[in-house]
Amino acid sequence: MTGRTSAASRASLMPELNVIKHSAATQQRPQVDEADRRLLAAIQHGLPLTTRPYAEIAEKLGVSESEVVARLAWLKEAGVIRRFGVVVRHHELGYSANAMVVWDVPDRQVAELGRCLAGFDFITLCYRRPRHLPQWRYNLYCMIHGKSREEVLAHLEWMVNHCGLQALPHEVLFSRRRFKQRGAVYAMPDSADASREQGPREAGMRTSRVGRSAGKD
């Protein structure tokens, strides 16, 4: 077991644009015109899965591809769009066993161990959070995806041995329910076509609630 995924597995991931609103209250609000609003409405549910997505968007809006690219660059620079992200529907790719592992790590070791955990391809999230003593002592979190619980637990065993985590208290919290995960909505759909487009995309997005132990279902 190597703890690494293949290039073919990576290539199978379905991309989707994830547009997130800028929320810094201290910055001056940028001036967004009607053309910008139409563009935001066109991309808020994801880029077309084509070789030239901006050209397809431009055709629908009746503008040039270069104008779409230039406006998106300005919207990002102005903070209206904070980032473009990829939403991976891992359940649809067969990764139905997902667990958040929470660790009680000495504060002086968090950065070092966080880098070790984040180096595995099966880890999709790794971050530090404050403790809430005495109820919650854990301060380092990582998310493991696998096609079965056995695979997830095998990944966990591998990284415990590789990173030297045997002595650290931890809990394995398997996901029990899927929720929607999506980017910001800038405009509500005003046609039946837009409503039909929104439904299938939202159906595949998720966030997870977790159980308290590896033994729960």
Walkthrough of the structure:
The chain is an alpha+beta fold and 217 residues long. Among the domains are: 17-78, Arc Repressor Mutant, subunit A (Orthogonal Bundle); 97-179, 2-Layer Sandwich (Alpha-Beta Plaits), CATH 3.30.70. It is built from seven helices and five strands. It has helices at residues 7-11, 34-43, 53-61, 65-78, 110-118, 149-163, 192-203, and strands at residues 97-103, 123-128, 140-146, 170-178, 208-210. The chain has a five-stranded antiparallel beta sheet. The chain is elongated and about 60 Å long. The model is unreliable at 1-26 and 191-217 (pLDDT under 50).
Distance between the termini: 26 Å
What is the CATH top level name of the domain at 97-179? Alpha Beta
Using the 3D structure, state the CATH architecture of the domain at 97-179.
2-Layer Sandwich
Order of helices and strands: HHHHEHEEHEHE
Shape annotation: elongated
- How would you classify the helix and strand content by structural class? alpha+beta
How many helices? 7
Low-confidence stretches: 1-26, 191-217
Question: Largest sheet, described in full?
Answer: 5 strands, antiparallel
The portion of residues forming beta strands comes to: 5-15%
Question: What average pLDDT do the residues reach?
Answer: 77
If you consult CATH, what is the topology of the domain at 97-179?
Answer: Alpha-Beta Plaits
